[in-house]
């Protein structure tokens, strides 16, 4: 079902709209992210189209004049796929396909495609497949029919043409089958998790590409796949980590993203159990990303969805080596100072100062900067949980700074 990795980059066009809640600048930021997603999926963005609208057109999302421009461009430039930043309704997708006669993807379809491409274990593949079928179900009628000749590439690594003529019932059956399969795996995983004993469990969470796996590798000396693409990690890796003499379990899991498709949140439920069952979260943030504050909000929103907001959390601001505030030239009297101009020192005096009792850390996992701070903070937090759980063990784990004193 999930097939195909295409090495040649497919030519694509991106489309987004400017509304009263989303100005041109915001849209460009979102399209930057969409372009990164497209690249991750194996596409090259040839052009971006945007239109100012009060609300999307219920039939074709963008207006007909703009649609003509897109069609002309796509025909002349050998465009294989047109990708929309927002979720299209099944009807919109069908209508637009009829007009443009090429592959039409929305953000959800694109993310699902990347997940399909990246899912390696049978567990991850089953979860992705379930999400793909859930996404496909309302879109079945009339889908793909005029696309036979153009199969392959982005958006086609999923349930496709074999399902064209078949009816919804078959897809429904497939969905319930996959759900059963997942339930079985879930039970096995639950048993496995149960066998891990009483160690404190810590989970790395954060937006995609912030450096979770890199940090995991640094502190656990393990080898988790890290890459400058989105969703490098889809499975959960759990490692035993020991700081000083204090052991705990650390898990690295799938990254979050703005508007993470609900189908994926649901079908990745058990991968996310690792987060739900954690005693402590390390929320990793890429502070060098211009949108990092919005990323934090997206992550918190997903944490809320999986009922994990409000757990003990340490905020870890990563990539301080790459952080570059924008600079206002001395003779520039017009530009107003915004948070984009803050130095790290200034940032530390903002709301960051208030996250849970100084629970903010500033590190570079890549250059191993401030890792001592990181170890200390994590040690203290894990110790706190440990001695609350096992008060009689108190003497085993002294405060971080007192560790080893007796020996010296
Ligand atoms: N400059 C800089 N780059 C970093 C740092 N930490 C990680 N990176 C880079 O950021 C990219 C993403 O790192 P990953 O560790 O794969 O990120 P992740 O959060 O696991 O990403 P997903 O698994 O996709 O959610 C890689 O190219 C890393 O080399 C850092 O401290 N500074
Ligand atoms: Mg990762």
UniProtKB/TrEMBL annotation:
TM segment ranges: none
Function: GTPase that associates with the 50S ribosomal subunit and may have a role during protein synthesis or ribosome biogenesis.
Annotated positions binding GTP: 206-213, 231-235, 252-255, 318-321, 364-366
Keyword Chloroplast: no
Protein name as annotated: GTPase HflX
InterPro entries xref list: G_HFLX_dom, GTP-bd, GTP-bd_M, GTPase_HflX, GTPase_HflX_N, GTPase_HflX_N_sf, P-loop_NTPase, Small_GTP-bd
Naturally occurring in which organism (per UniProt): Christiangramia sabulilitoris
NCBIfam families per record: GTP_HflX, small_GTP
SUPFAM superfamilies on file: P-loop containing nucleoside triphosphate hydrolases (SSF52540)
Binding site for Mg(2+): 213, 233
Record's subunit section: Monomer. Associates with the 50S ribosomal subunit.
């Amino acid at each position: 079902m999930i097939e195909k990795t295409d090495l040649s980059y497919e030519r694509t066009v991106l489309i987004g709209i400017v509304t009263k809640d989303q100005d041109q600048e915001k849209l460009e930021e979102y399209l930057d992210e969409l372009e990164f997603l497209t690249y991750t999926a194996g596409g090259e963005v040839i052009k971006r189209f945007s239109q100012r609208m009060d609300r999307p057109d219920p039939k074709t999302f963008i207006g007909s004049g703009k649609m003509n421009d897109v069609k002309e461009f796509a025909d002349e430039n050998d465009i294989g796929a047109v990708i929309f930043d927002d979720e299209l309704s099944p009807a919109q997708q069908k209508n637009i396909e009829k007009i443009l006669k090429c592959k039409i993807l929305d953000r959800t379809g694109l993310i699902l495609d990347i997940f399909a491409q990246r899912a390696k274990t049978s567990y991850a593949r089953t979860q992705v497949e379930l999400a793909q079928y859930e996404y496909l179900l309302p879109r079945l009628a009339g889908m793909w029919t005029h696309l036979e000749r153009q199969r392959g590439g982005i958006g086609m690594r999923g349930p496709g043409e074999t399902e064209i003529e078949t009816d919804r019932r078959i897809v429904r059956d497939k969905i319930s089958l996959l759900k059963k399969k997942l339930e079985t795996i879930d039970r096995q995983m639950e048993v496995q998790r149960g066998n891990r004993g009483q160690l404190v469990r810590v989970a790395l969470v954060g937006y995609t590409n912030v450096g979770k796996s890199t940090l995991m590798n640094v502190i656990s000396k393990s080898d988790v796949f890290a890459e400058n693409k989105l969703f490098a990690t889809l499975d959960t890796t759990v490692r035993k980590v020991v700081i000083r003499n204090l052991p705990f379990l650390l898990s690295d899991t799938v990254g979050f993203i703005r508007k993470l498709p609900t189908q994926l949140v649901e079908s990745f439920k058990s991968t996310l159990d690792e987060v739900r069952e954690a005693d402590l979260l390390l929320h990793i943030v890429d502070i060098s990303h211009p949108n990092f504050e919005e990323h934090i909000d997206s992550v918190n929103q997903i944490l809320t969805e999986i009922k994990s907001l409000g757990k003990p959390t340490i905020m870890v601001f990563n990539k301080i080596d790459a952080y570059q505030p924008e600079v206002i030239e001395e003779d520039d009297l017009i530009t107003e100072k915004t948070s984009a101009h803050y130095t790290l020192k200034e940032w530390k005096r903002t709301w960051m100062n208030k996250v849970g009792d100084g629970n903010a850390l500033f590190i570079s996992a890549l250059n191993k900067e401030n890792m001592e701070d990181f170890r200390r903070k994590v040690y203290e937090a894990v110790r706190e949980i440990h001695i609350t759980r096992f008060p009689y063990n108190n003497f085993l784990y002294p405060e971080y700074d007192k560790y080893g004193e007796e020996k010296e």
